[in-house]
Design goal:
- This protein is mainly beta.
- It has 2 domains: 15-33 and 194-259, no CATH class; 41-188, no CATH class.
- It is built from 3 helices and 18 strands.
- Strands 1, 2, 3, 8, 13, 16, 17 and 18 form an 8-stranded mixed sheet that branches.
- The longest helix has 13 residues, at 247-259.
- The radius of gyration is 19 Å and the shape is globular.
- The two termini are 25 Å apart.
Length: 263
């Protein structure tokens, strides 16, 4: 079976590796089950900003959203979470459908965000308010309000329990643009493999897995706290990547990490 399906979501009994540039390490998961199998597409609707909401501009000033879900010309948002829609009254966090409790350590949300119109800039900050995208060894902080550090029309990430992510959206055209959001997502039940040899094979690309880089260039205290509470991890906050000729060292380190895991 392929690692991913036609939607780019990880199939059951396949592996997901989340690499973090800040630490040179990765989280490795086996997807045990996908809870939302068969209904992975979620048409959320308009961007969750109200008419008159304050927006930053690319000229360094502020402006207001001309209508609900609409970006003014040459403007961008602050950090946005996605509140529940009708019928989602029992979500854990009434301001963010993707925020999972630290007690949900066996769950991950793999989220692909499709933005219409696709000219719209988008980035994600982990945790909210912390810009992780940087340029030239961190000398320049970049992102949706800069010349680079964002994508257009699409972004993909995995939501870790206990961390609130912040999405930002930008309109660098001279038009007012209503912005629509479609999610393609997998709600995974996961476990961390307990075989250090398997983890080493995944991280040296000998065993198949789906790789995704989390935009984490700084291990913010909020991330560290969540990793401790959710997974029982400490520094290096995952399984460090080693060369193939460093296998013995890697296996020793991975074995010690596995002993302290909570999932």
């Amino acid at each position: 079976m392929s690692v991913v399906d036609k939607l780019g979501l990880v199939n059951e009994n396949q592996y997901l590796a989340l690499y973090m540039p800040a630490t040179g390490s990765a989280l490795v998961f086996r997807v045990v089950s996908r809870v939302n199998k068969g209904f992975e597409v979620f048409d959320y609707g308009l961007l969750p900003i109200s008419a008159g909401a304050s927006l930053s501009t690319y000229a360094g000033t502020t402006t207001s959203a001309p209508a609900a879900g609409t970006l003014a010309p040459y403007s961008y948002t602050g950090d946005i979470q996605f509140p529940p829609v009708a019928g989602f009254d029992n979500v854990f966090d009434k301001s963010d459908i993707w925020h999972l409790s630290v007690d949900n350590r066996d769950r991950l949300f793999h989220v692909k965000v499709f933005v219409h119109p696709p000219i719209i800039r988008v980035d994600v900050r982990i945790p909210t308010g912390v810009t992780q995208t940087k340029f030239q060894a961190g000398r320049v902080v970049v992102g949706v309000g800069s010349a680079t550090g964002f994508s257009r029309g699409f972004i993909e990430t995995v939501h870790i329990p206990g961390i609130i992510y912040g999405y930002r959206f930008g309109n660098d055209t001279n038009l007012s643009l209503p912005v629509y959001i479609r999610f393609v997502y997998g709600e995974y039940i996961v476990e961390i493999p307990k075989n250090p040899e398997l983890i080493f094979s995944i991280l040296t690309r000998r065993a198949p897995s789906y790789w995704l880089t989390l935009p984490i260039t700084v291990m913010d205290p909020g991330i560290q706290s969540a990793f401790r509470d959710v997974y029982g991890l400490s520094e290096p906050w995952g399984f460090k990547l080693y060369r193939e000729d460093e296998k013995d060292r890697a296996i020793r380190e991975y074995t010690n990490i596995i002993k302290g895991l909570k999932v």
